[in-house]
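Give me the 3D structure for Increased recombination centers protein 6.
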Amino acid sequence: MLPSNVLILGAPGTGKIRICQHVTKDYKADTISSDSHSGVLYDGEFSTKYYKINLNLLVEEYPDSRDLVHDEDEKARKLGEWYEEFRNQEYKELRDVLNGFIFTFDLAKDSIEYLKECLRVVDQIRSQLVDESGEDEWKGFIVIAGVNSAENGKTEAIEDEVLLLGLEFVNISEKGMNEYHERIGIDRLYEIFESHEWEHMDTDVKKGEYEQSKRNKLDEMTKGLLEVSDEEAEVEDPRPAMDLEEVFQRLQIAKDSVKDMNESQRKEYANKVIEEMLDFI
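Predicted structure for Increased recombination centers protein 6 (281 residues):
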């Protein structure tokens, strides 16, 4: 089975290795150089109850010198240089086999202006991946991952900038669930890996059965919301109930998020929301 590949790019100290360790459950770090994390590879099997894949997590880091990590202008310039190399023909083979891209940054230390420049580069990377795929959208996933905590209002402003591009933001310093029972932080990132439609999967069930299982979940949700018999009303269901108001709240959040997106971004975001609701409701 051919491997699936996810590229993780960020400056030093932005959680790249933490992501690799959480996804692969490989917490050994004794062989990782403290000078640079560029070229670090985590590989192994990633599995759910529906499938398993051979997963490669490829780490790239900029700038080359960690002495420059506090100079945002220099970091932005080095990111631009990295992209110019990445877009060259010699990296075409890598671009062709990518299934995901994660960009990392420091919520506490990095300014919004610096992040805007980074997002501009990420958007260029996405455009190139879309163009070379020959389709309307790239079938891989892109996540903007922050680490540490930011001052009041900064996180929300950053999340707005990310949503304007139709991308997803997670703070990997968080974990657990929010008030809507949705996974957040590093757990949400893991969920993205779980729910992604990988190109090379060894499935425990046939693809048709996998798709049918998702439709069954939707049918069960609908039945639970709209069809309550007298017998069911008298017997307490031991399973946690799905709150209709909660469903509407999630849909409203998604609707509000797409207001400032273009048609292509809205389509991509809507498909993602629908897929996740089928998988995890």
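The CA atoms of residues 145 and 170 lie 5 Å apart. Let me know if you want a second pass.
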